[in-house]
Predict the 3D structure of the following.
Amino acid sequence: MLGVLGGMGPLASAQFMLRLTLLTPAKRDQDHIPAVLWSDPRVPDRSAARLSGGEDPLPWLARGVAGLKAAGAGAIAIPCNTAHGWYDELRAGTDLPILHIVDAAAEDLARQGIRSGRIGVMGTAGTLAMRLYQPRLEALGYEVIVPESAEMEALVTPGIALVKSNQVADAYAPLAEAAGNLRARGAAAVVLGCTEIPLGILAGPYAEIGVPLVDTIDALALASIRWARG
Amino acid sequence: MLGVLGGMGPLASAQFMLRLTLLTPAKRDQDHIPAVLWSDPRVPDRSAARLSGGEDPLPWLARGVAGLKAAGAGAIAIPCNTAHGWYDELRAGTDLPILHIVDAAAEDLARQGIRSGRIGVMGTAGTLAMRLYQPRLEALGYEVIVPESAEMEALVTPGIALVKSNQVADAYAPLAEAAGNLRARGAAAVVLGCTEIPLGILAGPYAEIGVPLVDTIDALALASIRWARG
């Protein structure tokens, strides 16, 4: 049984469950992957904890992992990029494997035939500040670029907040503009490295951005299906 | 915390989580409703159990309720109409309140201003055989009509199976035809009384069916929000 540590945000983890189902080859209910979703949106804001001394989310995350283990989970997927800033602490506190969303994103880049070059990474301010993507992608031979501070403040952070407040369609324009700026700076692909971002991007004419995209919700769902079937 | 006994099917319960989130007034993650989704698609087929002596799903359902209680749930929502055939047995085995999907559907009829008259109810063969909707809607003054046997075999049952096998768009035509037939027989509204049916209906131009619809996924999500906020 797959354990999904969600609620960060709740729309992203619901979308993860939907995509997990749709991406699973199945003919009937009983062919699908058993899963438990722990959707606790009360987890303190991950970026605020990293950047401005906000409440530590680790006890909340660890409680979710324990709840999922008690429910019978054999592995954990976390459809929130920023929460992976506490990946090592969570791994140290459980004997369950935890799928890493950056590894899943890298596998999706390879699936799309992008095996080197410059990669744009969009994410929360917390994810970028803790350099969640750079070491793992650079070890694979990629060069990582991220939005500039002014773009984060004007486009990416407000776009993520719009999704979290259910104004999904309004999030498209600022998020697509930031992705387009990364393309203009030479990105061969753009990783949507916050699970709210694909929700906003997919709510508009995303093909017009003109660059391959990595949807980290789908990437983690595909990695989860590989775990369940492997 | 809301406990969601899902997986029947898994796409319907994922959609329930998505709609629960989108229908909740919220400005940030922390405004959303904490929930745990138990998505076990291995629960034996509910219609087969009722109609042809298939394996009893009750032990699987009760295990899910117990798992949700252990996770801290304060009430249970079950986004599967047919599973409500075991409602009384589940209620007898737990001290948690279980929201009833037929009550939620009736509340949605009233919300749409439909307070009497003939109502079409679509559902699985199991739901119709056990007359899940008739006593509750008739007690409120409605008259209930359902698809004829030939329509169940040719349209409704195959449409539900298409959703369960992820062929959601293909499910629209047969399900919409069955809903249109109920309208032609004088239904003032049609209750999509199997949580796969709204997924198929919403995948096509459902406004052309020309009759008010009750989406039992949304109806149960709205009832759940009332519970969480009340």
Residues 149-164 of chain B form the longest helix (16 residues). Residues 101-215 of chain B form a domain with the Rossmann fold fold (CATH 3.40.50.1860).
